[in-house]
Amino acid sequence: MAETVSVQLTVNGQRREGRCETRKLLVDFLREDLGLTGTHVGCEHGICGACTILLDGEAARSCIMLAVQGEGAELRKIEGLMENGKLHPLQEAFHEHHGLQCGFCTPGMLMTALDFLRVKPEPTEAEIREGISAVLCRCTGYQGIINAVKAAAPVMRGS
Ligand code: FES
Ligand code: FES
């Protein structure tokens, strides 16, 4: 049987620990070992952005990292966006502006938009287009997503 190692990290403010093989991808560890299936996995080679999480505050693709590389890290994932039973302003805006259809890209899109608005709190539409181009969406044609990020920006600046 393959040898396993312990991986300890913080996810959405909670200390979590699991055991896995050293070759295991971070996204698979989060989904399979910690049961946090909110983060989706698509291409598994860093292209589609579905697996995007915040790692120590910055957007990262969890499918091109090993779980062991996450040791000691602070992760923020889609399950932690909603607070006190209230949707995050970005989630509200995606809902209101039709920023999703099937929802497959949505967790990665939201985490990418969250990081984007941290870096660029007052973006132009062109900057939003570029910022969210890191995540592929097969359904929406992107306009609803762009409108949602634009609408969420002033709300987030005020909060
Ligand atoms: S699943 Fe990670 S970038 Fe596509
Ligand atoms: S909403 Fe279906 S892939 Fe984006």
Could you describe the 3D structure shown?
- The protein is α+β, with helices and mostly antiparallel strands and 159 residues long.
- The chain folds into 2 domains: 4-80, Roll (Ubiquitin-like (UB roll)); 89-158, [2Fe-2S]-binding domain (DNA polymerase, domain 1).
- It is 34% helix and 17% strand.
- The chain contains 5 helices and 5 strands; from the N terminus they run ββαβββαααα.
- It has helices at residues 26-33, 89-96, 106-119, 125-132, 143-158, and strands at residues 4-11, 14-21, 52-55, 58-61, 74-76.
- Strands 2-1-5-3-4 form a 5-stranded mixed beta sheet, sandwiched between helices.
- Strand 3 (52-55) and strand 4 form a beta hairpin.
- Helix 2 (89-96) packs antiparallel against helix 5.
- The structure holds FE2/S2 (inorganic) cluster (FES) (2 copies).
- Residues 100-106, 137-140 line the site of one FE2/S2 (inorganic) cluster.
